[in-house]
Amino acid sequence: MYRNVHESKLVAHVNSSSSLSEAYRTLRTNIMFSGIDDPVRTIMLTSASPGEGKTTTVANLAVTFAHEGKKTLLVDADLRKPSVHIMFKKSNRSGLTDALFKENPWQEIVHETEIEHLHLLTAGIIPPNPSEILSSRRMSELVEEWRVHYDVILFDTPPLLAVADGMILSALCDGVILVIKSGKTKFTSARKVLSQLEFAKARVLGTVLNNKKRSKDSGYHYGYGQ
Ligand SMILES: Nc1ncnc2c1ncn2[C@@H]1O[C@H](COP(=O)(O)OP(=O)(O)O)[C@@H](O)[C@H]1O
Ligand SMILES: [Mg+2]
Predict the structure, then answer these.
(1) Phi, psi of 210 (to 5 degrees)
(2) TM segments (predicted)?
(3) Taking Cα atoms as reference points, which of 216, 147, 222, 217 lies closest to residue 181?
(4) pLDDT digit string (tens) for 56-85?
(5) Which atom of ligand 1 is closest in space to residue 210's alpha carbon?
(6) What residue spans define the domains of the chain?
(7) Which of 83, 97, 111, 137 has the most other CB atoms within 10 Å of its CB?
């Protein structure tokens, strides 16, 4: 039934009773409660460097919101190294960049997924100038349109310290979640990310501690906190 999704990485879908899935649900609940007066609807995941778990976390978080019945759009805004389509085994022939250049209406480009309530907009063709097109008026118009159609819009992004794209996207998001990889992310890098986001007046909702090995099992868990 779920043969089209990457079974080992979309754990929130294929093994929703696991402790990792429970951690994703806790993250979702915390996000929902962090904005009672000012609901958080557009959220981006960021981290200092590549390989820290942004894509894995955002994909599972999107699944978790969809399981809750929220109409969810997952957008691959990592126009440097797109990978969300690989996790969901979808074609990336057209995607965000096509929607930005109005090649097609975004409604025609968005993928439905095997998961009810979850839609996916892959990155599309890699452009030569990602920062520029992400800061375009068209991009903010698209986000406004998505807000009409979806309850939650989640963005995957490239590493924040490497390129300006994450900072640009943070201005379009109600909230930002920082992924930190245990044993890899340097304290100084995480601090740098937080101070850049603070400078941009982004609302940092919390951090996810990825890859933390637990003594009792060989798995991983996600921590959450301010
Ligand atoms: N909690 C985890 N447990 C095991 N492997 C993980 C976990 N988080 C990420 N990975 C793996 O680490 C690699 C990098 O993760 P990814 O989500 O692509 O990071 P990023 O998007 O930050 O570059 C991937 O191969 C992914 O499957
Ligand atoms: Mg990634």
Answers:
(1) -95, 150
(2) none
(3) 222
(4) 999 999 999 999 999 999 999 999 999 999
(5) 1
(6) 11-225
(7) 97
